[in-house]
Amino acid sequence: MKKNLFVFVLLILAVLGVQAQEKSEKATKESQQQESELFTLNRTLFAMGSRYGDATITRLALYNLLAYDPSNEQILDTLANLYFDEQKYTNAILVARDLLQVNPNSEAGLEISAISYESIGLKRKSLEFYESLYLKTDNLYALYKIAFMQTELERYNEALASIEGILDRKKADNLKVSFNDEEGNLLEIPMKAVMQNLKGEVFLRQDNKAGAKEAFENAIIISPEFKTAKDNLNKLK
User: Fold this and answer.
1) Cα–Cα distance between 152 and 148 in angstroms, integer?
2) From CA 127, how far away is CA 53, in angstroms rounded?
3) pTM (2 decimals)?
4) In this structure, what are the phi and psi dihedrals at residue 173, rounded to the nearest 5 degrees?
5) d(CA 165, CA 176)
6) Residue 69: which of 26, 117, 118, 102 has the closest Cα?
7) What's residue 8's pLDDT?
8) What angle do CA 205, 209, 212 make, to 5 degrees?
9) Which pLDDT score is estimated for 36?
10) Is 26 helix (H, G, I), strand (E, B) or coil?
11) What residue segments make up the domains of the chain, in order of their start?
12) Ranges under pLDDT 70 in the chain
């Protein structure tokens, strides 16, 4: 009798266990289905916000998606770029920081950080990210920015080394940079001409007029219409 009772209890416990497991699996499936539906909804919101140019909706959708997957590199990349495009540089920096924690080699994270720090006036911090970007990518445009920042920070020997790093590179021969002249006209000047001009300006700060004159002349040889270099050369006469 006791044996039959024991078996009966075991059967009851087994049934209850199966029922509990079924309820747990059902709850899990329902939860997964809800998450899937919410994920799909937020992807749709993101697409609609992007389509209609509504940055608020787009950001909201990205934040909701990020809540599901905080380490998603693509979502962080998109959010950082969104803030950057809106010129919300502090926000862009914060998101890029998380992006770089997920992927320290993220070119987008490094570039957004470098430009954003530069845009809010933190040039030393910006320089750090430009240097990291250059070391990881060998991007000569990053080295170009490094040379100018080192000059502005009065790190002249480092600036000259960066300038020579561009002047010595064959692949820089066909690179151009865009900037506005004093009249606001958009100019495209060969990168090496700009570097020669910057080299002359660094030499002037070091009171090396002979070196400055040669650098300005080299800039004009590369780009005969480079007015800034011509003006700098005329000031030495």
Assistant:
1) 6
2) 33
3) 0.78
4) -60, -40
5) 16
6) 102
7) 45
8) 75
9) 59
10) helix
11) 139-237
12) 1-39, 41-42, 49, 182
Alpha helices in the chain (DSSP H): 2-51, 55-68, 73-85, 89-102, 107-119, 123-137, 140-152, 156-167, 191-205, 209-222, 227-235
**CB neighbours of 184 closer than 8 A, spacing ≥ 6?**
none
Longest Cα–Cα distance in the chain: 119
Domain covering 139-237 assigned CATH 3.40.1190.10 in the classification: no
The pLDDT value recorded for residue 183 is: 73
Predicted confidence at residue 77, as pLDDT, reads: 93
Condensed to tens digits (0 to 9), the pLDDT of residues 152-202 reads 999 999 999 999 999 999 999 999 998 777 677 788 999 999 999 999 999
The sign of the CA dihedral 100, 105, 108, 110 is positive
- What distance in Å separates the CA atoms of residue 184 and residue 199, rounded to the nearest whole number? 24
Q: 120: how many CB neighbours lie within 10 A of its CB?
A: 13
3-state SS assignment for residue 136: helix
